Amino acid sequence: MGKKYSCHKISEGVATGEALVSADEIMFYLINPETGVVIEPGHDIEGKSMAQKILIFPGGKGSSVVQADGLYQLNVRENAPKGMIIQYPETVLVSSAIIMEIPMVDKVDPQFYEDVKDGDTICIDADRGLIEIL
Hints:
The protein has 134 residues and is an alpha/beta fold. The chain has a single domain, classed as 3-Layer(bba) Sandwich (Glucose Oxidase, domain 1). It is 21% helix and 27% strand. It has helices at residues 64-76, 91-99, 110-115; strands spanning 3-6, 8-11, 14-21, 54-57, 83-86, 104-106, 121-125, 130-133. It has an eight-stranded mixed beta sheet. The longest helix is centred in the middle third of the chain and has 13 residues, at 64-76. The model has no long low-confidence stretch (mean pLDDT 96).
């Protein structure tokens, strides 16, 4: 058993996968839908794939259309994140996660952000309000 942290459910579900940690906000339209790779120049996770990962990020950026469509294009190609841990949720990403059945949580115990590292195996149990670093 690893370290457990409390969180708040936004979109229901349970997901386990590799953590991808971004300090920058994400514009899902600047992710290659064929690979899940971030193509935004200068982004702190530029060149990394979010496909089937647990994405940990502050929030989204860009218009509602590019956010929803960008995430949708990733989802239909099975290159969307398996789960999302977000600090500053917004209506478009929340509704997109719910519709696409991607577990999403916020209001995470602040210690989590100190402890989590890229590549850690993370389990989000949104239904129980728990995150675990395995």
